[in-house]
Automatic annotation (TrEMBL):
<keyword id="KW-0274">FAD</keyword>
<dbReference type="InterPro" id="IPR002938">
    <property type="entry name" value="FAD-bd"/>
</dbReference>
<dbReference type="InterPro" id="IPR051104">
    <property type="entry name" value="FAD_monoxygenase"/>
</dbReference>
<dbReference type="GO" id="GO:0016491">
    <property type="term" value="F:oxidoreductase activity"/>
</dbReference>
<dbReference type="Pfam" id="PF01494">
    <property type="entry name" value="FAD_binding_3"/>
</dbReference>
<dbReference type="GO" id="GO:0071949">
    <property type="term" value="F:FAD binding"/>
</dbReference>
<keyword id="KW-0560">Oxidoreductase</keyword>
<keyword id="KW-0285">Flavoprotein</keyword>
<dbReference type="GO" id="GO:0044550">
    <property type="term" value="P:secondary metabolite biosynthetic process"/>
</dbReference>
<protein>
    <recommendedName>
        <fullName>FAD-binding domain-containing protein</fullName>
    </recommendedName>
</protein>
<feature type="domain" description="FAD-binding">
    <location>
        <begin position="134"/>
        <end position="186"/>
    </location>
</feature>
<dbReference type="InterPro" id="IPR036188">
    <property type="entry name" value="FAD/NAD-bd_sf"/>
</dbReference>
Length: 200
């Protein structure tokens, strides 16, 4: 149990058809006054955007502003992502600004994208949750991202892990303390069966 991992190997990730464009404004100053230390979410037609500021504000490190724009990649109908390995930062920035404007996102967000000096774009990849969550002998069980990693911007990773823990605790409570060794596998398998549907 465990020498080759619970799945007996690793399956390659699958492209989700979702892309994220990031932009960073070194030195900050591109967001409204008073917004340092705050993150703001914006939703538009086919776009989710997040803006924030980070850093110490100290002279040696300063503060930087950032924008992250999440969108579905309409060009990836075959499951193969569009590649952008040779894109220049200005190409990503221009595409991001145009995307935000088309989606009707407020100028406050567009301004951060326009001022971004470092820009890049990444595809979001997922791993199948088809691997077993419970080892053959019942000595190991997976929950949270170890069992079913989720795209970070969905805001569901921690929520689903808490639900996993609650469900697992309830299933384990059904096994009496004196009978754990002989009856542990059934509650673990029940947990995996109950929780797989909501997260896959």
């Amino acid at each position: 149990d465990g020498d080759a991992g619970m799945a007996g190997g690793v399956t390659p990730p699958t492209y989700s058809g979702i892309r994220v464009q990031f932009g960073v404004v070194p030195g900050g100053g591109s967001r409204p006054a008073g917004s340092v230390g705050e993150f703001h979410q914006w939703f538009g037609e086919g776009v989710y955007a997040l803006t924030g500021s980070y850093g110490t504000g100290a002279a040696d490190r300063g503060t930087s502003d950032m924008v992250a724009v999440v969108f579905a990649d309409g060009a990836a109908t075959s499951g193969t992502p569009r590649e952008n390995a040779n894109w220049e930062a200005s190409d990503v920035r221009d595409d991001c600004v145009a995307r935000l404007r088309r989606a009707g996102i407020p100028q406050e967000v567009v301004s951060v994208a326009e001022a971004s000096e470092r820009c890049f774009e990444l595809g979001v990849y997922e791993h199948s949750a088809s691997a077993p969550w419970v080892s053959k002998g019942g000595r190991a069980v997976l929950l949270g991202d170890a069992a079913h990693a989720m795209a970070p911007f969905l805001g569901q990773g921690a929520n689903q892990a808490i639900q996993d823990g609650y469900c697992l605790a309830n299933r384990l409570a059904s096994a009496h303390a004196g009978e754990l060794s002989s009856k542990l596998l059934s509650p673990l398998q029940s947990y995996a069966l109950l929780r797989r549907a909501p997260v896959t």
